[in-house]
Design brief:
Helix content is about 30%, strand content about 30%. The N and C termini lie far apart (about 85 Å). The strands form five sheets. It has an eight-stranded mixed β-sheet, with helices on both faces. The chain is of the alpha/beta class. The structure holds zinc ion (ZN). The site of zinc ion has 3 residues, from loops.
């Protein structure tokens, strides 16, 4: 047996204790992930949530022991801003979401966290948490923007550029609450473009973090350093579930932004940005990632685990990059004025709001040319395939309802992507069919260009094999009629 060198014994003990504490908390965080379905707030199912959707939930927590609910402000259009506080600890943590009205992922996660807190599960862990910390949540800071699912508030300003001028009641409320709590930690919860990827990879930046800078020099003091360490911890947990899909948001100092100022005012501030995730348009998977990451940080603040983490690991998180498309097609042959060229196409399916809780897609060619440094949620190589413009179906239909009678497989295989309809519904802009509906005035675009709607066929050896209609790719051997994303083009 090797003789123990007692000179190093205390250090070995510290190392063992630290690693076992980390291992234990890791296991706990994984438990949170596994048990998430029982905490999911089932009344919130999609991103277009509004102030009225939250009120019954907030009313419920007014009655719940341990929850302190106070109206702390009012939006320009008169909607209530509520602060929900839980705990008795002396460390104050302030979390606010949806300062941008169309960024609701974390708002949904906050109500999942409330269900976790009010459940009878994890009692011992929660008792320890609330002895050490008091949590203060301000969900949906910009309810007027959320009402119409837009970034800006009713004044038409970006609340996140109002930290100094403080013209918006939403921004004033945020500042007043931060100051009155003298919060030790702050969580600034947002959504970012789904087209961000983690630098030098094809992975979407599903979650991006930032410990905002508090000056142009981007200095790191203890306040910012603690935010960085908490991010290191959250990143470590997320990597187990979405390896390579975590990035770091740009850290240029923005003197008008809240995150930067709140860091400056002495609250260790963490920005969490929910980006994109394959096949998760309503961000329900990303919501779950928020639930886990935020809770892991809150427990880490409580047991002070984060202090043992290496701040240098923060710098190792890749930066956000902006190189993703929804669909990337490469190696296409494209004919222009009698000559053939090779083109890659980057296509994005842009969401267009259509009334209260609905949207449809109007796709665009986001870029064309050599796109070898870009990536796609879906990427396919079409070397050897020729782009063939779609044409208009020879039969003119009376009403759009008559499209139901068409066999779309043979329509598309015949090279027809447009169907002319006499009576086009006035206020509608999209259809539930895999073809575009057009009026008599419609002209097929002469060529592909950035910003144009991608609708064409891919032909090999004289045979049409694939269709792209409004940016959605369909294999004509196995046509998926569930793709119902045609537009009405006048
Ligand atoms: Zn935002």
């Amino acid at each position: 047996m090797k003789k123990v060198n007692f000179k190093y014994f205390p250090f070995i003990m510290i190392a063992l204790l630290t690693s076992s504490a980390v291992a234990q908390s890791d296991e706990f965080v994984q438990q949170l992930w596994k048990t998430y379905p029982q905490f999911k707030e089932e009344s919130l199912t999609q991103r277009r949530i509004q102030h009225q959707d939250l009120q019954p939930l907030i009313e419920k927590y007014k009655q719940q022991p341990g929850f302190n609910v106070h109206q702390v402000g009012t939006s320009i259009e008169g909607r209530s801003l509520n602060l929900i506080s839980i705990g008795t600890g002396k460390t104050n943590v302030f979390l606010w979401s949806q300062m941008h009205g169309d960024e609701s992922t974390a708002t949904m996660a906050i109500f999942d966290i409330f269900n976790f807190i009010s459940s009878d599960k994890f009692k011992v862990e929660k008792a320890a948490l609330f002895k050490n910390v008091t949590l203060h949540f301000l969900p949906m800071l910009n309810p007027d923007g959320a009402e119409v699912f837009q970034r800006r508030n009713a004044l038409g300003i970006d609340v996140n550029r109002d930290a100094l001028r403080l013209q918006s009641p939403e921004g004033k409320t945020l500042k007043r609450i931060r100051d009155s709590l003298a919060a030790d930690f702050g969580f600034n919860l947002h959504d970012q473009s789904k087209y961000y990827n983690a630098e030098a990879s094809a992975n979407p930046a599903t979650i991006s973090f930032l410990a905002p800078a508090y000056n142009y020099e981007k200095d790191v003091n203890d306040v910012r350093g603690n935010a960085m360490k908490l991010i290191v911890g959250m990143n470590r947990e997320l990597q187990k579930i979405i390896p390579g899909q975590v990035a770091k948001y740009n850290d240029d100092f923005e003197p008008r932004a809240f995150g930067d100022n709140i860091q400056k005012w002495g609250t260790s501030t963490i920005l969490i940005e929910s980006g994109g995730f394959l096949n998760d348009p309503e961000k329900q998977e990303i919501r779950k990632l928020n639930f886990m990451a935020i809770l892991s940080a809150l427990f880490s603040i409580s047991n002070q685990d984060y202090k043992t983490l290496d701040i240098n690991d923060y710098e190792k998180i890749p930066e956000n990059d902006s190189k993703l498309f929804d669909l990337k097609l490469t190696g296409l042959q494209y004919e222009l004025l009698g000559k053939t060229y090779i083109l890659d196409l980057g296509i994005n399916n842009l969401e267009i709001s259509n009334g209260k809780n609905e949207y449809y897609y109007r796709s665009q060619i986001a870029d064309q040319g050599d796109l070898s440094t870009n990536h796609g949620y879906k990427a396919m190589d079409f070397a050897g395939y020729k782009i063939k413009p779609g044409v208009i179906y020879p039969e003119i239909l009376e009403n759009s309802k008559d499209l139901e009678k068409l066999d779309f497989s043979s329509v598309l295989s015949g090279g027809y992507s447009y169907v002319q309809v006499k009576n086009i519904p006035k206020d509608e802009n999209h259809t539930n069919y895999p073809v575009q509906i057009v009026s008599a005035d419609f002209k097929i675009p002469a060529q592909l260009s950035v910003g144009s709607n991608p609708t064409f066929f891919l032909e090999k050896d004289g045979k049409v094999e694939f269709a792209v209609v409004n940016g959605f790719l369909m294999d004509l051997k196995d046509i998926d009629i569930s793709i119902k994303n045609g537009l009405i083009l006048r």
